[in-house]
Amino acid sequence: MNLELFIAKRLIRGKEYKSSISAPIIKIAITAVALGLIMMLVALATTLGLKQKIREKVAVFNGHIQIFNYDTNVSNESLVPVSTDQFFYPEFNEVSGITHIQAVATKSGIIRTEETFEAILAKGVGTDYDWSAFSEFMVAGRLPKLDANLNDEVIISRILANKLELKVGDKFFSFFLKEGDPSKTPNQRNFEVVGIYDSGFEEFDAQYLFCDIRHIQRMNKWKKDEVGSFEVFIEDFDQLHQKGNEVYGATVSTLDSRTIKDRYAKLFEWIGLFDFNVAIIIGIMIIVAGINMITALLVLILERTPMIGILKAMGSPDWSIRKVFLYNAAYLIGVGLFWGNLIGLLAILGQHWFRWVKFPNAKDYYMTYIPVAIDPTTWVLLNVGVLVLCTAMMLIPSFIITKIKPVKAIKFE
């Protein structure tokens, strides 16, 4: 039998334990652990959720990896076409972990209405384009039909629709410069708005218009099998750098590739700062919870001084007595973790389902509500880490037990 654990259980179950002088302090310590864990869970969930959502939105407009022809073009516009007659298209089987690949083309233009005009970047897409992420972004209308003959259906962002005073069903004129000779009369297209989207990512929403890729092929005088670039989607974003190198190595020498981390380096550097902030929050919360537990344990030790004296007089070693109080402290920490997990996870699930907490300035974070996500492995490690670190901190106050003299302790009673 584990004697120390037996004594700790008797202390915890005893009626005097709940009515003793230390009872209020113990409740405060448990509350501190619970509140600390709630703060840590919320910080982790919001950070992970925000990172995932920003990654997803950037990938929706660019893919995780882009494959294009080598050129000196630094703009977002497709200038040098790429043939679709590639071994990796329409399925990239040579590299594992790739979920989808699609052909696109982009062209800069201007939308002109009777009242105003706006610069745009028309993104031509085909039947292979993955619209699944846009189901969350669509606020009006529907997606364009691309599986039939060439048509004039497009979707635009809510930002462009508001600036140009357009709505679903409206038609407008757009103008695109001709390749190789900007002095010539620009290409003109008459498009119809069939859908309006809002991704919350103003950098993209303010310029992107989605249309049939055949419009851009005709304006650029490309062949049917020529596109601007390929967008590659991978299964695990954490392997982006590795998969980017594998894709680059697998393609022919005339093609180049680039990951969205390379293209939007500043954005992903900013996202990386989230981890540092969360680490600081977790560190502070563990220290606060640990200090409260140290206070509670000191009060417990002082309250049980006679018991400590009796155990020492009976020959119990100091470490054995310290283990009794360490078991007791671990129990209190466990209670705090239980309530912290219960309340914290309910709050996270509530935010995930109902999205009741909004960003005061959606433009700064590219979305209106605060997204949340929780990783089971991270959640388990957090709980184990808090339990171990807080219990380890209890070794310091438990050292006072070695200074207690049996004679004085028994007289103290």
Descriptive labels:
413 residues, alpha+beta, 2 domains, 6-stranded mixed barrel, two-stranded antiparallel ribbon, 51% helix, elongated
> Mean pLDDT, rounded to whole units?
87
Which shape, going by the Cα principal axes?
Answer: elongated
How far apart, in Å, are the first and last alpha carbons? Answer: 28 Å
Sheet with the most strands: spatial strand order = 3-4-9-6-8-7
Proportion of residues in helical segments: 40-55%
Task: Report the radius of gyration as a whole number of Å.
Answer: 31 Å
- Listing every helix as H and every strand as E from the N terminus to the C terminus, the arrangement reads HHHEEEEHEEHEEHEHEEHEHHHHHHHH
**Which structural class do the helices and strands define?**
alpha+beta
- Main sheet makeup: 6 strands, mixed, barrel
Concise structural overview:
With 413 residues, this protein is of the alpha+beta class.
Architecture overview:
Keywords: Cell membrane, Membrane, Transmembrane, Transmembrane helix. The protein is built from 16 helices and 12 strands. The chain has 413 residues and is of the alpha+beta class. It has 2 domains: 3-56 and 268-412, no CATH class; 71-253, no CATH class. The strands form 2 sheets. A 6-stranded mixed barrel has the order 3-4-9-6-8-7. It has a two-stranded antiparallel ribbon with strand order 2-10. The longest helix is centred in the N-terminal third of the chain and has 40 residues, at 23-62. The radius of gyration is 31 Å and the shape is elongated.
